[in-house]
Amino acid sequence: MTRTDAHPMWLPDEALRPLGERRVLVAAGIDDPVVATVVAEVRAATARWGGAVTVASPDASLTGDEVRGHDVVLALVPSSTAPDEPTRALADDVPTASGSFGVLREGATTTVLGLDSPGLLYGLHHLVRAGAAAAEGDTPLTWYAPTNDVRMLDHWDNVDVHPVMGQVERGYAGGSIFYADGRVREDLSRVASYGRLLGSVGINAVAINNVNVHRTEARLLTDGLPDVARIADLFRPHGIRVHLSVSFAAPMTVGGLPTSDPLDPDVQAWWAARVADVYDAVPDFGGFVVKADSEGQPGPFAYGRDHADGANLLARALKPFGGTVFWRAFVYDHKQDWRDRSTDRARAAHDHFSPLDGRFDDNVVLQVKYGPTDFQTREPVSPVIAAMPRTRLAVELQVTQEYTGQQKHAVWLGPQWSEILRFPLSGDGPDGGRPGGRTVADVAAGTAGPPDARRAGLVAVSNVGDDAFWTGHPLAQANLYTFARLAWDPSADPQTLLDEWIGLTFPDADPVVRETLHRVLDDSWRTYEDYTAPLGVGFMVRPGHHYGPDVDGYEYTPWGTYHFADRDGIGVDRTRATGTGFTGQFPAPWRDAYEDVTTCPDELLLFFHHVPWSHVLHSGVSVAQHVYDTHWEGAARTVENAAAWDAIAGQVPADLHARVAERLAEQVRSAHEWRDQLRTYVFRHSGIPDATGRTVY
């Protein structure tokens, strides 16, 4: 068990008290690092809280009475020490997905049956989340299986401190837990603690370096392998496989070849040799993450090849070892002429990738951002997700809050992610649910394709650093927890997950603490949306660092993030009739719902349409008045939230209370700056006054 001075997040000692007070039998019967983690967790909890642990030897054959003499039994399936009743039921309904586990409560004994060692670990933490309730009543054998095979976090950490992006690109929680002073840290105790936290919530894959691969990071593939192996050794006991982001140009920049052409035999041989070296150092290595032909990163376009050629090059090198390529679909022209309204950044991923459906090898996962632009507070679901049924596809979310307050604002993203994952890609209409259709979650899980299709899952950019609270803003821990739990079960109710996180992180807290946390976090995504870029138009942030309002900051830049506001109106015409044609990339019914201003949802209106300031929304107010109202009200809610938090001083740890209070004060300041700039901008462009008479500058 690794301990550090960092905040324990959702695994404080108190959270394991209900387990630690009991008599626990661990009957795994195998020598396995994940089983060793289960044993260590139980030993530590029972030693602290007065319980007892029995670890059955591999050749033990315990009687039923010996098994029932324990309050909790943790066993692998099949196991000679498992209780008879669940063992007899196994043939009927045991899941096949790695990480699955069953739970039975009979008499005075709660039994967890792990399908494999990760399942045993996940089952243990299922009991931890249940708390005292895990030892109450009788329940039949119930199986729990992960919906997604891939439950992955990407770290945008740089080995060297980048002169613009720093140690962690888009990181808001201090430095890297992996790197310091231009190399992998000697002391990796924070990584060990991080692995424990992630394993407890089912994460099974981590990429440890930035997708924008710079000179030093590129050599993790070669000179850095001993240190990569050190990191992998710390994740392995928690069922987590390490991945590396690699540069497509590595054969040239690292290997000294004259080309990186994916069809060149020497390039293919170079990658095959490097992959073999990686697996010699890290036998359970997961694979590569690749950003290619995007924002200046090299790729196959330089050789007249396409993304399938590039991805398959790496996939074939990894195939003999069971590795996977995660090929990012975030590809667009970042040198766009702002005068050219026919070029649309939102179209780019679909234009590049949909013609390639069916051409990727089966160990390629196409990693697609949830929206067509860039992790905005509000944007439509990416049409790529619905367009590639013959390709393994993972949906990419962003836990780090690049465009949602940068962990200075309390913005819990669970409702946004749940809305995305439940989104029906086809159905009866905008409000028609999913009859006969697929959800985003279905596609990511691989359940929308043929029965023999390989599954993928969910990936997110992590939000942790070497900050004492891991995430900068202590309440941003809820985003990391919620992502992991949704990756296990996308159908989970986000409010239930938030309540889980509160109960684990603040055990035995006064009910007012729970109420206050819900008050601050429940509607925080929509509150943030209310005082920032309106109606799906996106961005309006300071260029470069992306924090704070700058309405026209990107308007005349090459980045393709425009809103086209003028005296007459605002928004981007992406219709087929008069605009960029982006609506045509969607399946029915969305292609027509988004095309028509009368059926387009208000929250996406400005993403799809350029409308007058006086245009009346479905809500009954004009676009201008909507901005006036929402920005005033959203900023006001930040003041109320800060006051509510102040009122529970003394009921949570003082250092945590102070950090949250400091961040909430900054959120109040920033929200009011957003409020005043957006309201003033609209008035100065439209000439329409706020109907309520509130101050506009």
UniProtKB/TrEMBL annotation:
InterPro entries: A-glucoronidase_C_sf (IPR037054), GH (IPR017853), Glyco_hydro_67_C (IPR011099), Glyco_hydro_67_cat (IPR011100)
A Pfam family reported for this protein in Swiss-Prot or TrEMBL: Glyco_hydro_67M
Domain Glycosyl hydrolase family 67 C-terminal residue range list: 471-694
A single GO molecular function term of this UniProt record: xylan alpha-1,2-glucuronosidase activity
Ranges of residues in domain Glycosyl hydrolase family 67 catalytic: 145-470
Name of the gene encoding the protein in the UniProt record: aguA
One annotated Gene Ontology cellular component of this protein: extracellular region
GO BP terms, alphabetized: xylan catabolic process
Stated name of the protein: Xylan alpha-(1->2)-glucuronosidase
Organism this protein belongs to: Cellulomonas algicola
